[in-house]
Amino acid sequence: xxxxxxxxxxxxxxxxxxxxxxxxxxPLGILVYNLxxxxxxxxxxxGNIIPAPLILTLLxxxxxxxxxFNTTKNIYVKYINSVRARSKRYIDRYGFIxxxxxxxxxxxxxxxxxxxxxxxxxxxxFWRALKAIILGSLIASTIVTTLTLTANITxxxxx
Length: 159
Fold this sequence. Notes:
Layout: H1 2-16, H2 21-32, H3 37-49, H4 51-66, H5 70-104, H6 112-121, H7 126-158
Helix pairs in contact: 1-2, 1-3, 2-3, 2-7, 3-7, 4-6, 4-7, 5-6, 5-7, 6-7
């Protein structure tokens, strides 16, 4: 029992990490730890949405600190411009649904972390952004779970 709790906790932590998110936590839980897919889905989804309200709330304060120093200001501005360029077409064209889809696509440089930053950059209302990000995370978790289970079954048939 203790072993399962530790594995689930690791899945939650991996899901909360930037870049990795559910793209890594769900395969980890299902393929590596051999946990129940519903448990992995739930733990990954919960872990994935934990950073969103923190990022949405704290990014303004962090930004004010970063822009005080030339070195961090240059890096920050470059990163923000990159995020803005990648996400602008989704947000401008589709609004709430665009932010949801941006978070939902389980591709590199999308997800909860980037979606939260995008929402901040474009001044999306906190609760509206949080709803879009949670829905996007739910969709991404569903996609990654489905792909992981399909790959797992396919590999078992082939091997």
